[in-house]
């Protein structure tokens, strides 16, 4: 395959701003990479959509984005979209696609009690993909799951500078702790890219003896590996955010995105 032009961007894709938690560590490794950050606000929250809807929506939207921005690589920075649609996207598009899947493997290596919590969206925690990861990497351990749509709303609110409802945080942790065996959880997998935006709040609610982990650093390394040796601009060009707007949820202002190197907002 011909080496991409230095100006070809990396495309990040999420239902909202959660994917910024993957963009952050990627920029640390690839500081001059051109970035397009796509948020499907017209479809948020993905966690409440059916598998069928997401399996159709995500590849179609990514197809339009790839056509418009001609990225060198696309990152599905969303656990819900990845666990449901990664295979469909890879089959439909002819470029490297990096997915985001729950960090159950490192959690299983880290737990001392043998009890792991997985906090994701409702759609992610019901996926056979998560059953499969648990069987492959956490055999003999207990994997408890809980889906929390409130944390997605809370994370979006926090990034816009709004207050986060503390009861949402407490309910999310209780959703794991109150299950049989939940008292022994010593590692919680943040299996939604929105949730690391609330890490401090979740850590305070879970207690300092619980490790909260996510896969963002590993995904950033994977992106760097897959683009190793490619040409990059000498200085970082301003990143572009692209939103599929909807009327009842105004998308964030540029101010929330500038710390991530984004300098313009477009719509698709
Ligand atoms: N950020 C997404 C994830 O990682 C989902 C948020 C949503 O429900 O739209 O699963």
Can you describe this structure?
It is a single chain. With 268 residues, the protein is of the alpha/beta class. It folds into two domains: 4-100 and 217-267, 3-Layer(aba) Sandwich (Rossmann fold), CATH 3.40.50; 104-214, Rossmann fold, CATH 3.40.50. 41% of the residues lie in helices and 17% in strands. The protein contains eleven helices and ten strands. The protein has helices at residues 20-29, 51-69, 79-92, 104-110, 122-125, 128-137, 149-159, 166-177, 199-206, 216-226, 254-257, and strands at 10-14, 35-39, 73-76, 97-98, 115-120, 142-147, 187-190, 211-213, 239-243, 262-267. Helix 1 (20-29) packs across helix 10 (216-226) and helix 8 packs across helix 9. It is globular, with a radius of gyration of 18 Å. D-glutamic acid binds next to helix 3. D-glutamic acid binds at residues 14-16, 18, 44-47, 78-80, 121, 124, 152, 192-194.
Features of the shown structure:
single chain; 268 residues; Rossmann fold; six-stranded parallel β-sheet; 10 strands; 17% strand; binds D-glutamic acid
